[in-house]
Amino acid sequence: MSPASPDPTKGIAEELSRAGGRAYLVGGSVRDRLLGLASKDLDIEVHGLAPERVEQILSSFGEVICVGRAFGVYRIKGLDADFSLPRRDNKIGAGHRGFEVQIDPDLDLTEASRRRDLTINSMALDLVSGELLDPHGGQADLNAGVLRATDPASFAEDPLRGLRVAQFAARFDLRPDAQLISLCESLDLSELPGERILEEIRKLLLKGSLPSAGLSILEQTGQIRFFPELAALIEVPQDPEWHPEGDVWVHTLMVVDAAAVLRSETDQPEALMFGALCHDLGKAVTTVRERGRIRSPGHSEEGEPLVESLLGRMKAPHDLIRQVALLTRYHLLPYFLVREQATARAYRRLARRLWEASVSMAQLELVARADHLGRTTPEALAGTFPEGDEFLRRAEELRVEQEAPADVVLGRHLIARGLEPGPGFGPLLARCREVQDETGWTDPDRILDRVLSGSDGK
Predict the structure, then answer these.
(1) Are residues 75 and 114 in contact, defined by beta-carbon separation less than 8 angstroms?
(2) In this predicted model, what pLDDT tens digit does every residue of 348-390 receive, in sequence order?
(3) Residue 82: CB partners within 8 Å, gap ≥ 6?
(4) List of domains in the chain
(5) Residues 360, 403: contact at Cβ < 8 Å?
(6) pLDDT tens, 31-52?
């Protein structure tokens, strides 16, 4: 690892050193450097100086912001770096925040790093000398692809760590050792606020190159029980003709991995990944065996309320919940609209329904494509989805690939025909919209002539 660090961090570290302190880059920033990855925010721990002295030195480099004086954390305005003092965390209550913090500027680096969750996050880099300090063997674990608890005795004090283990596995292709698995099995995620759970699941899905690895760890450690809508998919059978890969959970793991490959093709990766995760939730409540076949009638529609309960408990934004619910409800349509040679009206109506939640037809096709590729049929293994290709071609031809068609007939057109604004406007405009979707006409007078004459069949 190069001793160089980007200015002004190096200059700040040198100034702290001249005052008798030592500045170390710590945590995930060190891990990411060893992996050759860029870190957005830097975590710098300053040893050997009192908080007042640290704040004084930092202020010579810019405006100092006290992120948490009680925690000994400072920022310099305009610099993506947190400067903190060594501390001990003593468990005094339940949950992620149930800790008493004791700042100790003279705390030994080995002891200070013991509070970190995993050995790969407990390394430090001396920003002046460039020396890597690794008191808990994090570099060796990183090279071996192993996740190991820094301090097994205190690991379980923070239940959020179980989710962090899962998202690190998904992001870095690392596997927990047997002791860490056992530690995660004892964690109670119900102590955590939904927002913190959502944050870790987001990282798993949006940063993970192999999201299935993280989800598998949740299953392996029993933490999946805190996500009952997902846990219910385990061992739910599927028709082997369409799903030779196995049960719904196995399929879901394959689908999220397929979706991860498609993330770069959308400006809504969060909706894509949660849509892939949730698309078959309804199979847990609809799957039946009939005349030797396994069917899940209506599972798309039944999945919608399950999306709302799963993401609702995690306090997900309302817009995301609505998007994922619609992607779940309609994820089969790119396939069926093509196979059934649906009319232009069907495409336009679908585009309108999706666009109510700012979901495009292209976004729906990505979820459908991930669903198609997340199985072991010959076509999926070949990486082809001809129905998806045709669905996009047709949507583009109808100019509804990225958004719904704009209404041609508006209220002003009705007023121009001498109609008085009132309750009847809504149904009348709805009929105009139906004619527009059926015919593709763009002339408001032509549409109105048909609707007002009654020849639209209403």
Answers:
(1) no
(2) 999 999 999 999 999 999 999 999 999 999 999 999 999 999 9
(3) 41, 42, 43, 44, 67, 73, 74, 75
(4) 9-141 (3.30.460.10), 159-226 (1.10.110), 238-405 (1.10.3210), 411-453 (no CATH)
(5) yes
(6) 999 999 988 779 999 999 999 9
